[in-house]
């Protein structure tokens, strides 16, 4: 079954010079990989340290809001992909069942033809 994956990669930690005792990611990278989708390349969104360092509290909230919107969008796409995968799986199972029925009918027809041929020989 095809699915989306989400990963947040923190490439480097850095303590700011104002010494708040916190570490901030120098580069935060959010990967939205669309695996097994006909060779499509994964979608990547990067937030650089400059974007974080130059932002105010509102800017950080905007960045978090952007990330949340991206995550919501990813979740929506993931749910849609799961729904489509389940539907495709159901169609495949139905096709296999139809094929099995056709094969059984074919074998029954061959058996009946052989019986009829045997009767005609007698």
Automatic annotation (TrEMBL):
Top-level taxon of the source organism: Eukaryota
Name this polypeptide is given: Uncharacterized protein
């Amino acid at each position: 079954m095809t699915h989306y994956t989400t990963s947040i990669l923190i490439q480097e930690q850095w303590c700011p010079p104002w010494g708040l005792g916190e570490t901030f990611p120098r580069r935060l990278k959010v990967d939205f990989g669309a695996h097994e989708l006909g060779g499509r390349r994964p979608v990547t969104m990067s937030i650089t340290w400059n974007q974080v360092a130059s932002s105010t509290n509102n800017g950080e909230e905007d960045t978090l809001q952007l990330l949340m919107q991206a995550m919501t969008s990813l979740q929506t796409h993931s749910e849609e992909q799961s729904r489509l995968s389940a539907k495709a799986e159901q169609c495949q199972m139905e096709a296999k069942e139809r094929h099995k029925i056709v094969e059984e009918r074919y074998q029954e027809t061959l058996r009946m033809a052989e019986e009829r041929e045997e009767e005609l020989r007698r």
